[in-house]
Amino acid sequence: MTDQATTLPGDELAVIRNKGEAPIVPKATSRDRGIGPFKRLALRSAIVIDGTGAPPIGPVDIIVENGRIVSIKKVVGYGYGDKAGEPADHEIDCRGKWVTPGFVDCHAHAGVAYHSANGWVPPVDYVYKLWLAHGVTTVREMGSMNGLSWMLDQKQRAADNSIAAPRLLAYAYFPAVNDMVKTIYTPEQGRTWLRQVKERGADGIKFFGAPPAIMEAALDECKTIGLRTGCHHAQMAVSRMNALTTAKWGLTSAEHYYGLPEALFEDRVVQNFPLDYNYTDEYFRFSVSGQMFKQGAEPGSAKWNEVLEQFLEIGFTFVPTFTIYDANRDLMRARQAYWHKEYTWKSMWDYFTPQRGGHGSYWYRWSTQNEIEWKENYRLWMAFINEYKNRGGRVCTGSDSGFIYQIFGFGYVRELELLQEAGFHPLEVIRSATSQGAALCGLQDEIGTIDVGMRADMLVHNHNPLTDFKLLYGTGAMRFNDATNAVEWHRGLKFTIKDGIIYDTEELLADVRDLVKASWESDVPEKYASKDAAAP
């Protein structure tokens, strides 16, 4: 058993969960998919959606050298352009295809150790391949829940492209809340800890709250040393500081919806909790949180506008992760999603199933009333987020998959659909998923748009993604062919390109199907069978 006093900063939560042993989620150590990078890659005659919000343009030839875009040239007609003038080592015929920037998942987890309560935990290869198969080329890993040591190893391997994985940003969990792991008790302890994780290589910090003096000092220190921050304003902490409070202290982004309703309260400070409420009971935690927005200011009211303007003045960012609470509106839909049969890992499925003690496994008495309340909660939540975007505020796309019947990759695509439901034009959805996410991560000069000088993170689509985001799901979408009088499944994403390496999405999905099948048959592949394989 590892002594907590000797634990490296950023590894505290993982050490407790792992009981001091090797990480529960097996690492990725090699790359078995993807071709390239090539000295010179050409995407010929593509229709480009560049990620800025501009409409599609094409056909154009996109030339990549050593992982970066070096030329974007309009093509006359739908031919191959001047091949002799711009030869390439590898070419992709993009006639009749669309190209977008790679997607940025601004709130994600590289595997979930919680699933070990229900059996064999999926290796992180399963997670990475689902992300890549759904176009996610950059991930803001919020919390480094497998340990910062684990996460920094995977971040470096992803940067080297020695594993098949998106670009990874490591945000460390700030251990200052009683209901998780708490090792920080004073502002100075917090500042020291932050300097240590920064020195170790963390990109940012994931907060769940903290005593106000510690939180304010921590956010000040993060600004000083250059750590970006995101906060899930947990219900055990939010009565002392809502999302507007922490935004004023320098928080970079608010995750989910917690803390926003409280900022809109006019006639109360504390949510109207039932008197028999217990936060440890997951049913209470999630059912009652669906009642929050209706206790705040009405859309269009003076208070509503005042809060909007204060967030805008700060230049704040929201990462709503609508997708992760979507099952609350319609549990049956979430449970019966097309993809569960072939893509949902057995221990994940068993974990999602109602059980006491499982985070997000609270369905043991979900009711019609709960769903009605959550539908109203979404109406108000979406109205705020859409208006914030309309007034110039930054809204980014995040999934938080691995809980509540949402699985990796598929949950991200669902978030695109929900942003559109909130009122975003599909071009604004793509902008949120690409250039806005890149800016939140501080990578706007590297990724998020298709332009000369940018990294070659691009997606090649067989169908125009603006017309229907359902085509991005790994299962595709059901369509009827009048010529054959038969139902077909159309899938849009053909290739995911990250740093100039080309991943065939069907190959990635086939790998995942094989892994998932093995999980249901309890046939652990040899490379994942030994816990030593997961050791740092």
UniProtKB/TrEMBL annotation:
The Amidohydrolase-related domain, residue ranges: 388-470
Molecular function terms from GO: hydrolase activity, acting on carbon-nitrogen (but not peptide) bonds
Protein name, as recorded: Amidohydrolase
Superkingdom, natural source: Bacteria
Keyword Nuclease: no
InterPro entries: Amidohydro-rel, Metal-dep_hydrolase_composite, Metal_Hydrolase, Metallo-dep_Hydrolase
Keywords in alphabetical order: Hydrolase
Record bears the keyword Ligase: no
Alphabetical list of Pfam families matching this protein: Amidohydro_1
